[in-house]
Amino acid sequence: MTLAxxxxxxxxxxxxxxxxxxxxxxxxxxxxxxxxWVPSRIAHQHFGKDAVQANLAALGPxxxxxxxxxxxxxxRLTFLGMLLTDHGSVAEDLxxxxxxxxxxxxxxxxxxxxxxxxxxxxxxxxxGEQSRLLRQIIRLSHWWGGGSAFGEREWTVGxxxxxxxxxxxADLRHYVREHVLKHFPTESRPVAAGGKGGAPAGAFWFVADxxxxxxxxxxxxxxxxxxxxxxxxxxxxxxxGILETLLADALARSGSSATRRRLLLGSLATAAxxxxxxxxxxxRLSPTLLAxxxxxxxxxxxxxxxxxxxxxxxxxLDAVRSCLRQLAAxxxxxxxxxxx
Length: 340
Prior knowledge:
This protein is mainly alpha-helical. It has 16 helices and 6 strands. Helix 1 packs across helix 10, helix 3 packs across helix 4 and helix 6 packs across helix 8 (128-141).
């Protein structure tokens, strides 16, 4: 493990301005108290709608996200956003202790599939309040596997899908931090007080259409979430859709005639290379990712495509990350003022 991971998370905590820390801490406190995220109307009443929108723009979707449920809007923190709150260090310590417990249980009995709150409370000597907090942290972090049940008092969780990796780790704090910074890209690190001196927030900052940008952001975080809970097929489908949308948008901005035709992912990638939107042959797309549309539904086409595995899902995530880096670099280059 590298020291950079720990240094980066600590630097993020120091860099967060007091108003921004107050905002994310308030969202986390509401979730802890009510076991649900903050309805937008309550956040607007407390902070003011303009202040909320300013915080969202400054912090970016890697820390705070908007979502809609049953006709109502809510604000929620990502796992990284929670780690930057006033209680982030306490939450991190508690999660590390829990993962150490899971690691040690797995080492002694590799067949273990679930753990219950009573066993965890006894092993870690947790109070009822600490156990409730741990339940919320585990759920938000997605360090849990199938068969989980998050009751209000008692809970049962499946061991994480990366339990074999945990078993090989001596320092799980570094493991947690590297995982967090990998799944919540640093393009959207918070800006300092005053809102100056940073790149535009969000991995999709170069997408001009705000609604499209929000949809891509939501799909991207969902793709990472479902990968973490063994949803390989869903992850590949989401990544394929993200890539098609990104490439079509980039080609349209470049003025390419390719946008006049409805192209599939492989053809879009080829056109992007030809138009220098991407470096030629720099985007690696697996056959499964290229055929992601065949994974949707249950018709004859679906039966001809093998179900994706973990390797395919992680390759799809890497393809999106590669595309994001290249499109961001291309956009930044084009937006620089011409030298005199």
